[in-house]
Description:
The structure holds three protein chains of three kinds.
Chain A: H1 25-28, H2 48-52, H3 65-70, H4 77-88, H5 97-103, H6 110-114, H7 121-135, H8 140-152, H9 156-172, H10 176-182, H11 189-197, H12 203-207, E1 213-214, E2 222-227, H13 231-235, H14 237-249, E3 252-255, H15 265-269, H16 273-290, E4 294-297, H17 300-306, H18 309-312, H19 320-329, E5 330-332, H20 333-340, E6 353-358, H21 361-364, H22 371-378, E7 383-386, H23 401-404, H24 406-423, E8 427-430, H25 433-443, E9 449-450, H26 452-461
Parallel strand pairs in A: 2-3, 2-4, 4-5, 6-7, 6-8, 8-9
Antiparallel strand pairs in A: 1-3
Chain B: H1 29-38, E1 44-45, H2 48-52, E2 68-70, H3 75-88, E3 92-95, E4 112-115, E5 122-126, E6 131-134, H4 140-147, E7 152-153, H5 166-172, H6 179-182, E8 189-195, E9 201-205, H7 216-220, E10 229-236, E11 238-239, E12 243-251, H8 254-266, E13 273-278, H9 279-289, E14 299-307, H10 309-325, E15 330-332, H11 337-348, H12 350-353, E16 360-363, E17 366-367, H13 373-387, E18 390-396, E19 401-408, H14 415-431, H15 450-453, H16 456-469, H17 484-487, H18 498-502
Helix pairs in contact in B: 1-3, 8-10, 9-11, 13-14
Chain C: E1 3-5, H1 10-19, E2 24-27, E3 44-47, E4 54-58, E5 63-67, H2 72-80, E6 84-85, H3 99-104, H4 112-115, H5 118-121, E7 122-128, E8 134-138, H6 151-154, E9 163-170, E10 172-173, E11 177-184, H7 190-199, E12 206-210, E13 213-220, H8 222-236, E14 240-242, H9 245-260, E15 266-272, H10 278-284, E16 289-294, E17 299-305, H11 308-320, E18 324-329, H12 346-356
Parallel strand pairs in C: 1-3, 2-3
Antiparallel strand pairs in C: 4-5, 5-9, 6-10, 7-8, 7-9, 11-13, 11-14, 12-13, 12-16, 15-17, 15-18, 16-17
Amino acid sequence: MTTHPTPGPTLDFSSERGEKPAPERADLLGGAGPSEFGSFDAHHPPAQELLDDCVHCGFCLPTCPTYALWGEEMDSPRGRIYLMEMAEKGEIPLEGSFTTHIDRCLGCMACVTACPSGVQYDRLLEATRPQIERNVPRSRSDRWFREAIFALFPYKRRLRAASLGGALYQRLRPKSMDKLLARVPERFGRLVAMESLLPPVSVRDAFRRMPERTPGIGPRRGRVGLLTGCVQDVFFHPVNEATARVLAAEGWDVIAPREQACCGALGLHAGREAEAIERAKKLIAVFERAQVDTIATNVAGCGSSMKEYGELLADDPEWAERAAAFAAKVRDISEVVDETLADARARRHPIEARVVYHDACHLGHAQKIRSEPRRVLRAIPGVELLELPEAEICCGSAGIYNMLQPQAASDLGHRKAGNIRGTGADLLVTANPGCLLQIRKYLGADLPMLHPIQLVDASIRGVRPPEMG
Amino acid sequence: MPERTMEAPHGGTGNDAPGAATPPVAVGPELARAFRDVLPADLVITDEVGRRSYECDGLTGFRQIPALVVLPRDADEVAACVRVCARHGVPFVARGAGTGLSGGAMPVADGVVISLQKLRRILEIDVENRRAVLEPGVYNLEISKAAAPYGLYYAPDPSSQQVCTIGGNVAENSGGAHCLKYGFTTNHVLEMEVVLADGSVVTLGGPTGEQAGPDLRGLFIGSEGTLGICTKVTVRLLQTPETVRTVLADFPSIEAAGDTVGDIVDAAIIPAAVEMMDSLSMEASEAATGAGLTVDAPAALIIELDGPADEVEAEFSHLTAICERHGATRMHVPAEAEERQKVWKGRKAAFAAVGRISPDYIVQDGVVPRTRLAEVLTRIAEMGRDAGLRVANVFHAGDGNLHPLVLYSEAAGEHDAAEKLSTDIAELCVELGGSLSGEHGIGTDKACSMPRMFSSDDLAVMHRVRHAFDPDDRCNPGKVFPTPRLCGERPGPYRPHPLEEAGVIERL
Amino acid sequence: MTDTITPRSLDELRDAVIDRPGTIRIAGAGTAHDWAGTPEPADTVLDTTGLSGIVTHNPGDMTVEVWAGTPFGALQTDLGEHHQRVAVDPARAAEGATLGGLFATADAGPRSLQYGSLRDLVIGATIVLADGTVARSGGHVIKNVAGYDLTKLLHGAQGTLGVLARLVLRLHPTPQVTATVAASCERSAMAGLARRVADSPVEPTAVEWHAGRLLSLLEGSESGAEARARRLAEILGSDAAVLAPDDATQAWEAHAAAVRARSDDRAVFRFGVTPSELPRVLDALESATGVTASPRTGVATVALPADADVVATAHRRVAEAGGTSTLRQRPAGAALPAFGPAPASATVLRAVAASLDPDQRFGRGRLAPWLPLPDQTGQPTGVSA
């Protein structure tokens, strides 16, 4: 016997909690009444079939970072799917609580890994976020802050300028600044978060450019196009250099087109669909001209969004096929190197180190790439690979999340740092610049941190890995 | 068997049942304010979206929006919340991870949900005494993870162990695949701190199995949240066995697999676990986990032995010989722990994975005496055919605990037929001398079937005990016992247990 | 004038409870008549030994339903023919104790380390309440969570709350072989030695200290159990040896005899504390003799002088260590405290007792003072309706 939801008591707590009452549904939908898609608009709302896949079993709960922090149903994958369903039925508006809980999702996709029913939460979230961006007016300060992020991060030139200021600032930054910032009112928390995420970068690294072509050594395996990335190229330029060197050493010609720009991952994961689509088209065109066999990236977030270009552009007859072809060529650097391990050309020199590998969510959960980087690291003689407790839980970086939700990000950062310290490792490696920035913030100078490819590069070249002194 | 002529002091199925009698209570800003006096404001959830998120547990067919949800952070705050409920005469439901499959954590109308998800600390791992002290929100699997460095583990392992909490396990007396050898939650919980309906705090049980006075701990475990809220649990930890050997064996028929189990028992082998899956459930699970199940085999057994190395090796070869004798078509023996985990994942993810092969399904949970497994499976298959519905079977074969999964399509209008088939299966289990539930509990889902298994006197006595703990029906009212509200005025009649009819039963 | 009645069926049992007004003392074989609280004189003694025998035994299901008045030893003998057993071994079974009596007194023996007590093996029961209600809980299957586990309430109820008519138990296969390793060991060293046994992979069924020796019981297959015993003896070193079968039987019989020993001037005191507390608590009970102790479960049985102060102090000492204690035997006429300080949960116990047996017809006095005697000014009202 099944009962249908019994209406609960009619209560009005809104004035109590100082919350703005949600607008009447009719207002929200322009007076048209609940549409076929409930509170969503008609442009790709979360698909009913995908929502139906969730059987409410709760297996996702323990791996969800916000559920780990707060234990509230609304801030769990199961809860968010439930909210999407209610919105889809038109039972709740998008504005207000719905947006709050969807905004709080890190998009780490740990739930996708954990789900036995095969719920595609990634697709649900990517369908929901643009709905919010389109239909929910944000407060002025929120709007301003988001615009600021997207006006800065995807642009290498602007990032370089910022890094220049940052480098200067970091050098001149008075010690008293920490105390000062600690007293900043909470509403400026986001700015403080942004400040502290600025990585220590040398002006030289920030302005270095990748050579357009790095020839492979020995018999050629093929042509690899390298996504140099925006944040990666400015703040982690040495990672790109190491990537090119390792690929070349293994016999790949490495093509790094000058005109490439941001892949759109940050925007895509934040629901800025239109912007992401434009960036995707530009990048596809650039790599088509480069005529490469494989498109490699050393950034987990970029790889995950580029692999989804096919779906992103599926509606556009001019681009759909080209996007799918592009996506099919995309590989994470660890996949590329892993494939060559059986027939490795470059000798690995030993590096004696206890290494802990942190799975970037966009690599482990979104792309299901877990064993490849581990195999690549284990192929280095002397490396002892350690596993991290709570490995499936996000470090709190999550694209721009640590800037938008600084408190949650900070709690997760501390939690991750604690787990990392507990392993007693000499070195942390992870394949995403966002994770590196976030973890560095909470781990401080306790432990050297590298991208795995830098360790491989050091091993091939027979040098001490950078930062390990 | 005497006729039941005694007038029960409380008609367990009568009008005085909870739910019907609970008068409407005033909830609203005043109640919220009272909770905010004992909790930070953001831990008192009043908005509709938040409250609706708690309207059901793992069984979504039953929904009820609570008046409020509160998230206390420690035992004192739980007690304070219960006292607020007592003061305002409001019923409450304690909720762990909300993974229950019987609607046991479904909120009560006009009631409060007390979430225990902020009480997640492992308070102590006592290696010398082999026990762990836990807050109720600790995930079952976390206990074993925390104990592992000391060579210890916590034995009960429900399929949802990665997410279900020890508090929920206490409420449901959870079992798991390994309870055949090791027993259930009730055999592993030594001591509990419990908040009673009036907000007072008592300790049930003690530091050893030694008891002074009646076993109140045993009564509380499995009472589905109707006697109070446990806020601290002390469990026994066991030594990790020296050896674990697992075989995944495919069989040409369900009967062959069933006979294998019988022979294993007859050989005086007590496996740590004996699980059976049919081809439908394997198909689903394999799609979800890639565990290495043979999807076109009619049946498979996962059999695990554990213990001292020599003994296990000897029993294991005996065991595989029994499998071979019954025509096992493939035997996969995972070599490493990792591979073994994979096989287990294939088994444990089966319920949720069935979502991949059917738009909708109902997970049933019934028990028959192990020797009647073949009979019940045949009957289930017939009933499924009659209803025009597919039934997948995953079960703990060693102890006769079945989990038939009734597959249906809501869109195709099969819901009511599926509900009926599922209920009929549970009641069939009772008819065959078994039970309505082996581990998922009665909750809301099966309350109306209780009169099939228990007489009104039996239920009335349970009710008397419940009222001794909770005279005003404030702890999770409306669960376990049939109520007119849920079941209509006349829930199904009690059918005398076959044993009672005959005095003695012929089973073999 | 006390009247004894011996019902021979469930009907007769129920009728006896309804027809006899006043208080009832439930008696089985009488092996624990002097345990727990001193019973008040009762109007009727309800002798359960007429309710005897196996109701149904399904070897394939490894379950058995038994009348509560069945002598435990006879039950084990019957089950043994099918190579099955109830995996508990209380010492007083040898004196003819009934299953119901063992259950009501929560008695258990050395094998509780592995199997727990009867509460861990019972899967269903039929009970008769003071108002004549016949109630069933649990069932005939090992795995069952339908309804309250009311049966547990009668475990350790010492003949209060209700009368057990029938019990359903889960069974275990009888091991092919049992082997015993004995290691000489002072009481002060037993905890450390027992820890070594526990940390070894031999999985003992019982570990008991008695009379200067730590006995470890290994059960299992023919080759397995003996091999494990040898392995354990090796691990424990030169002071340990595998006992010859006769010596082993003798050692365990001596242990059981010590547990059930009666004397005219001493009381038997049983308690459980966390294993790490056990040595300290034993040391504190200075006048204790006849000690048997289970260093891995934390349970011990000792004899104390039959002196109210000594016994009260012992209860208090156990309670301070967080444990539980019960007086098991008291010399005739001795007024000794049966229990330690009442825990907070005694309020629940009283409420449960009031709901099941509001007039305290059954076993009045056995759980005193946790369950205080009813107001003496009014006569008990007999059957409540």
